Amino acid sequence: EYDGAGFCGWQRQDHAPSVQAGVEQALSKVADHAVKVVCAGRTDTGVHATWQVIHFDSDAERSCRSWVLGTNSNLPDGVSLLSAQPVSAEFHARFSAQSRRYRYVILNRSVSSALLRHRVSWQHRSLDEGLMQTGADLLVGEHDFSSFRAVACQAKNPVRTVQRLDVSRRGDFVYLDIEANAFLHHMVRNIAGVLMTVGCGERPVEWISEILAFRDRRRGGVTAPASGLYLVGVSYPEAFGVASSGTVPVYG
């Protein structure tokens, strides 16, 4: 798990600290050789994770407990290794994944939070979670999500299958829970931005169907802030014996 506020995202970058660089450096110290890791899904600057899954290869003889304790003693602040286990050579953190799950957290009140400014997104206009759910239902299933991906997205195929998209409220906090076979660059944040636009009454629910039909990011609305987004689970075939989810953030 990691707090994405202090990193330029998961992927290693030359200009700023990344989660990947910190994890590889820590694992390399425990293994006593250079370690390269593969993750289930790369997260952007400011995006958090409660259940990122990685795999790496090593000939070092270490117990699972030693991998966890040794790595955590060398990780930068804001990153923790939760568990470790041996897996078969067929396992791949990215390509073996059947689905990924994200939670997007919105603080919906008239003033922002001094304490949660890097943990949640803030919307001062009142949100109707019922309208947001009605709009969310239009995005469930297999669709071309070209209107919901970043202009710089490098995915060759914009078609994704959203298996569920639930909107709920707990006090001043609105939660978006989304699961899909895979995600495009900025896809969750763009969906969150569109649903908030509908939820505050700025656009009708039908606008979402129009956006899908446009297949054009320029017609797709605002991108919601990264601070409210959490990777909370990755599902794999049972044969691999890999747990599928971590703690889901709850506020309020």
**What's the mean pLDDT score?**
97
Approximate strand percentage = 15-25%
As a percent range, the share of helical residues equals 10-25%
Backbone CA Rg: 19 Å
Largest sheet: 7 strands, mixed
Broad structural category: alpha+beta
Rough shape? globular
Describe the structure.
The two termini are 21 Å apart. This protein has helices spanning 19-31, 64-72, 129-137, 187-199, 206-214; strands spanning 38-39, 48-49, 54-55, 99-108, 121-123, 141-144, 159-170, 173-180, 229-235. The chain is of the alpha+beta class and 252 residues long. The longest helix has 13 residues, at 19-31. Strand 7 and strand 8 form a beta hairpin. It is built from 5 helices and 9 strands. 37% of the residues are buried. The strands form 2 sheets. Strands 2, 4, 5, 6, 7, 8 and 9 form a 7-stranded mixed beta sheet that branches. The protein has a two-stranded antiparallel sheet with strand order 1-3.
Concise structural overview:
The protein has 252 residues and is of the alpha+beta class. Helix content is 21%, strand content 20%.
